[in-house]
Structure formats: C-alpha cells, structure tokens
Write a structure and sequence with these properties.
Distance between the termini: 6 Å
Largest sheet: none
Number of helices: 13
Number of strands: 0
Length: 292
C-alpha cells in the first residue's frame, strides 16, 4: 500500500488551522468594542456549550453527562485545564505582550506534551517525532518572533503556565479518547466556563456596550474555532498519539500568519518566511504515514 495521508493527523491539523483564525477574529472584535481579553476567553467556552450539549443529547442522550469512575474526575480536570489555559495565557499577554506570551506557550507546549506522553501514556519517542518536534519548534520560534524591545522578564513564566495547562489538557483528552468526542467538548468546556466565569466577571464583561457586529465575532469565536475545532480535534485524537498531535497544532500560528498577510495586509520578514517553511516541513513529516 503506498504512503498516504492519515485521517486522524489531518483532522488535528485542520482543527489547529481553525484555531489560527482566532487572532484575526479577535483583532476585528477589539476594533468594534473594548471587550476585555479575559471575557473573550470566557465566551470562547460559554457560547460553544449550549449547542454542543443539544447536539450530544440528540446523539447519545443521557450518556452525554455519564463519566464513570475516574473518568468523572478526568473530565473535571479537563475543564480546569482549559480554564487555566485562558487565565495563564491572558495574564501573560497583559504582563509581557502577545509576542512573548505566544512564543513561550507555542514553543513550550510540544516539549511538555512529549515528556508527559512518554512518562504518563508510555508513548514511544521515535526519531521521526524528535526531528519533527525540533523542526516545528524552530519554525514556531522564527514565525512568532522574539520581542523587539528585548523585554524578557520573569513574567513570561505565565506563558509557561499556559503551555503546561494545554499539555495537561492534551494528555487528559488522550485518556478520555474512548468517550464520544462531543461529550468531551460539551462537558469539558462547560466545566471550564463555570470555573472561568469568576475571573471574567471580576475583570468586567462590558456586555451592555457591545454592538451586534461584536456579538457576531464572539459567536464566531465560540462556535467555529472553539466548538467545531475542538470537536474535530477530539475525533482526530482517537487515532493520533499525543506527541505528534502537539506538533501538528503548530499549524495554528502558521494559519494565523497567513491570514494576517493575506487579509490584514501585514508583511513577513525573511526570518518569518523561514519559520513558515520549517512549520510546513514539520507538518508534512507527520502527516505522511509510512508505507504499510
């Protein structure tokens, strides 16, 4: 059988591409209304939950909320990890800016996931995975770029916290892969939204001042790069190991950059172009499966 494209990794990469649209949508949103960033993180989860619950109830009925034994604690932890990711990431953005926060998160998460997958899930760390990881991290670093004012500080560790939260989220999703993907998104995100609500309320949601167009952007963020993307992600994770999945999600910054160039008129420097090429190479290395 000739080498071909594996469906699971393709779905994971597609989910990451959908995540990559969040930046442009948020940019449009912030131009429409002064929405606090943490509120956007809250709505990413909260707006996705009702339709996901209805969809899951139609498909699996009361099983939507059934997680027996240790799985009950795992789904709560999954939601907590998603909420923690929002808190840590937006705190990092507030302290050190988007560039440093994104760089630390994107470049740390695959390494943490690889370590956890080998230690917790007993996944093998092959030479191909190591190569793809190294190429992908180098590409992400070049693509996102270092801060131009050299303002590295200990506050960048908030980005490491968001990377750790995302790593825990990936590992937990792998341990729950025997459940319907819709259940994981609906119940996990519902738990995350509830845990995140106090932080969002403390920061002020600013709902009264939102025009209809801003609500449209929030709905898009909640339904497409959140509900749909994570549903596709969980389906793909059924047949994709955690470590290669973490590298495939590097398609997110690649997609965000392409949108910025094509739709927002931003320009890429030579280093960023090299980073994009390295990311494409890492994705191709993982998407191609060996001949049977």
């Amino acid at each position: 059988m000739p080498a071909g494209l594996a469906a699971g990794p393709l779905l994971v990469a597609f989910a990451a591409m959908l995540w990559g649209t969040v930046g442009a949508a948020s940019d449009v949103l912030y131009g429409l209304a002064p929405v606090p960033p943490l509120a956007v993180g809250f709505f990413r989860l909260a707006l996705a939950v009702p339709l996901l619950v209805l969809w899951c109830w139609w498909r699996v009925g009361r099983d939507t909320f059934r997680f027996d034994g240790a799985d009950g604690w795992r789904i709560v932890a999954l939601g907590a990890a998603q909420a923690a990711y929002q808190v840590f990431y937006f705190r990092a953005v507030a302290e050190v800016g988007v560039a440093v926060a994104t760089l630390v998160t994107i470049c740390s998460a695959p390494v943490l996931i690889a370590a956890l997958a080998v230690g917790v899930l007993k996944e093998p760390l092959t030479r191909r995975l190591v190569a793809a990881l190294a190429v992908g991290l180098a590409g992400a670093a070049l693509l996102v770029g270092a801060p131009r004012d050299g303002a590295w500080s200990p506050h960048a560790l908030w980005g490491l916290g968001s990377a750790a939260a995302y790593a825990v989220f990936v590992i937990l999703s792998r341990t729950l892969a025997h459940h319907d993907p819709g259940k994981l998104v609906a119940v996990g995100f519902g738990t995350g939204a509830l845990l995140l609500a106090p932080f969002a309320l403390a920061g002020g949601l600013g709902l009264a001042a939102l025009p209809a167009a801003a609500w449209g952007m929030l709905v898009y963020i909640g339904l497409v790069p959140t509900a749909l993307a994570y549903l596709v992600y969980f389906v793909g994770m059924r047949t994709t190991a955690a470590t290669p999945a973490s590298v495939l999600t590097l398609a997110e910054p690649l997609t965000a950059t392409l949108i910025a160039v094509v739709l927002l008129g931003e320009r890429l420097e030579g280093a960023a172009l090299a980073g994009a090429a390295l990311l494409v190479g890492a994705l191709a290395l993982l998407l191609r499966r060996r001949a049977a």
